[in-house]
Specification:
The protein is α+β, with helices and mostly antiparallel strands and about 120 residues long. It is built from three helices and six strands, in the order ααββαββββ. A six-stranded mixed beta sheet has the order 2-1-6-5-4-3, with helices on one face. This is Nuclear transport factor 2 family protein.
């Protein structure tokens, strides 16, 4: 994996986050992917299950602003630090850490940590 591959994946993730389109979401994952929505929970396993689980917790389009930086990458693993701002009332801010294991241009494992800022 190269940094541009990771950037491309995060851009596709953000597109899916905004659209909630099942095709955009599915395009992120390998068939046998695992999505750890929290590192201390069992993952959602399989592309179809991930698409369904995403729909259950989807944010509305335009509800968030997101910025990120790549912290590191290599051997198929990328580390991303993100900042999410919910533009709702009341607004909310979160810090994110993502560990993404890519196979070509799709994630086969994605673990996210998110912490609400006080």
């Amino acid at each position: 994996m190269r940094e541009k591959d990771l950037d491309r994946w995060v851009t596709k993730y953000r597109k899916a986050w905004e659209s909630n389109d099942p095709a955009d979401i599915a395009a992120l994952w390998t068939e046998d992917a695992a999505w750890f929505r929290r590192p201390d929970e069992e993952p959602v396993r399989g592309r179809d299950a991930i698409v369904a689980a995403w729909a259950e917790v989807a944010d509305a389009p335009g509800e968030t602003a997101f910025e990120y930086e790549v912290l590191g990458f290599g051997d198929g693993v990328g580390f991303v630090r993100g900042w999410t701002t919910y533009l709702t009332e009341p607004p909310g801010e979160f810090s994110n850490l993502w560990v993404i294991r890519l196979t070509k241009d799709r994630a086969h494992e994605f673990t996210e940590w998110w912490m609400e800022k006080p």
